[in-house]
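Summary for the steering committee. One of the milestones for this cycle was to obtain a three-dimensional model of the protein with LLP bound, which we needed before selecting residues for the alanine scan. The sequence and ligand used are listed below.
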Amino acid sequence: MKYINKKLTIEKVNFQKIANKFGTPFYSYSYSKLKENITNFKSSFKTFSPLICFAIKSNTNINLIREIRKLGLGADVVSIGELMLALKAGINPKKIVFSGVGKTSTEISFAIEKKILLINAESLSEIKEINRIAKSKNRTIKIGVRLNPNTDAKTLNQISTGKKENKFGVNKNTFYQIVNYCKNSKNVDLKCLSVHIGSQILDNKPYEKMLRTVSKILSEINYEFEFVDLGGGMGIKYSNSSKKLNYKKYNSSICKFLDKHKVKIIFEPGRSIIGDTGTLVTKVIYIKDSGRKKFIILDAAMNDLMRPALYGALHKTLPVTKSNLMTKKTYEFVGPICESTDKFITLKRFQKLKEKDLIAICDVGAYGMSLSSNYNLRPRPVELLVKGSKIKVIRKRQKYKDII
Ligand code: LLP
């Protein structure tokens, strides 16, 4: 995205033109950014060519998943719905891993039928259930076990998953117990140790600690794993001041790990693949002066983009048409929803805005549309994929008749 003649432009089209044609709010994604992210990710870890399974939960648009599949990625799914979606998008079942703490018997049964690569289990009870279902189908199923490495990912508390107080994975003792159980079970074949310590990780240290913990367990245990699934979590640069995860460093920690352990690496990235490809464009409905600040009331709300309300997450917010006239007042960008948490960002410095101006909320490709809802009975926005000067509707704006 860049300004051309003061107009914010995605690939070769400016947002104003898109808004004129499709209305607001809308999500738009840049194909070239998506391609660039996947190419970068692959080349950063090319020394050990991992299996890269896109975390579908970060974005469930089937057209985007098809593009991601064409660029060579598999899928990490966490529900039968996501599994159906990944299969419908044409992802090879042998490139699909199924994570999650509470898979139902129906979900396990479906995953077994579809012959996916791995079911990554998160408790002994789940493994017993997989074993029972596999036995009834006279099959042996490849599984992984998610270890909780008790590692602080040093990210937002709400998106941290690898500490012992988090519900995810099993502790070391249970892990050993599970390995023994699997050795004696005919219908589950334990192939993978998996970990995922959290999301939006910017610091390499938590990953290094996680690798040390996994390495220690693999050295202690008398068991050969074919895969180690390191999950996702690679953070992106939401603000100009924040850093980005250092892939080079992460790659060299993994290479060191692989010198000791002959396993194939799986990754489950979501945000790092799709996060910075997406923008939410919204229109200023009203401007309300409250004395100390001005409320910029937008036509997008927390139902369209939940991250600020849910985690206090901040997304870069830009004017679609640039001017040099600055406001003297603080602007608080809010949506029309009847909740005080329905606000996106408060900015002390911004260009002077007027009603009907367009605003771009950046880096919303991951956990933007996928966390959206119909709260206040608001239809979900249209999603557009931009390739050069071409714009393709990849999900229609919901109609009132669909939601009433
Ligand atoms: N694998 C597992 C098992 C996960 O639970 C997740 C994310 C991922 C992979 C992908 O993580 P990523 O590469 O996208 O960080 N809604 C929150 C993020 C929740 C992440 C949940 N799990 C947000 O908007 O920040």
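Key point for the committee: The radius of gyration is 23 Å.
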